[in-house]
């Protein structure tokens, strides 16, 4: 298998964003150990890659039906299922081991993210729009995992970081589901919140969660964990993010959903590292 196919199979770019989120949680919780940072980034990358690969094994027949996924290594014939399983197992074991070297709680969070993503979220995608709610749990674990890598304790701070990313998951993923709705439909995925698909009802829920993200993202500032820079940055970015969601509600255009999707990719790391640099 070529490096290109390996990167496609593990969704390397997505893994990188997940690791950034975990790193922000670690730094925000006061972590400053370089060895732990390296273990966190490597372990988080490997477990995320294993999750992405397992997802592609599970959905290999559905991937053949969609334009955006038909060129993935398994449906395109560049990677056998047997080899893919071996790769996933090796990635998962090595990643979990590295997280365990930090502390047991970090390893358990990594395992729970893998199991819930692969064995709950993935099969639910063809059955119910509630799959997005289920998938938001493993999707929000990285910053909490990073914080617990620093503190070795479940607590309020890791929980707040989890909750902010959990809320962000909804407008983020629903924007993706809107843009790719027709392709998703070919594989039987119904992931927008309304059964009517790209409708006012779906756009309203996207807008509602985008609005809720504004006060939720200010929580670290409200608890006096960060300074006024967080208030300014989170407020401005939150309003802009909501504006894109509002435009989607008004126009119901794919172009507006695509703008919201790209805005979500930019929004999260800026917010999370604002917390880090503005920590009191």
Describe the secondary structure blueprint for this structure.
Blueprint: H1 3-10, H2 12-28, H3 34-58, H4 60-63, H5 81-100, H6 104-124, H7 131-139, H8 141-151, H9 156-179, H10 181-186, H11 200-217, H12 219-222, H13 228-251, H14 254-277
Q: Care to describe what's here?
A:
The protein has helices at 3-10, 12-28, 34-58, 60-63, 81-100, 104-124, 131-139, 141-151, 156-179, 181-186, 200-217, 219-222, 228-251, 254-277. It has 280 residues and is an all-alpha fold. The protein starts with a helix and ends with a helix. The relative contact order is 0.12.
Give structural attributes:
mainly alpha; 280 residues; flat
Which percent bin holds the helix content? Answer: over 70%
Q: What's the helix-strand series?
A: HHHHHHHHHHHHHH
Mean pLDDT: 93
- Strand percentage lies at under 5%
Structural class: mainly alpha
Biggest sheet, open or closed, and with what strands and sense?
A: none
Number of helices in the DSSP assignment: 14
Tell me the distance between the termini. Answer: 48 Å
Strand segment count: 0
Question: What would you call the shape?
Answer: flat
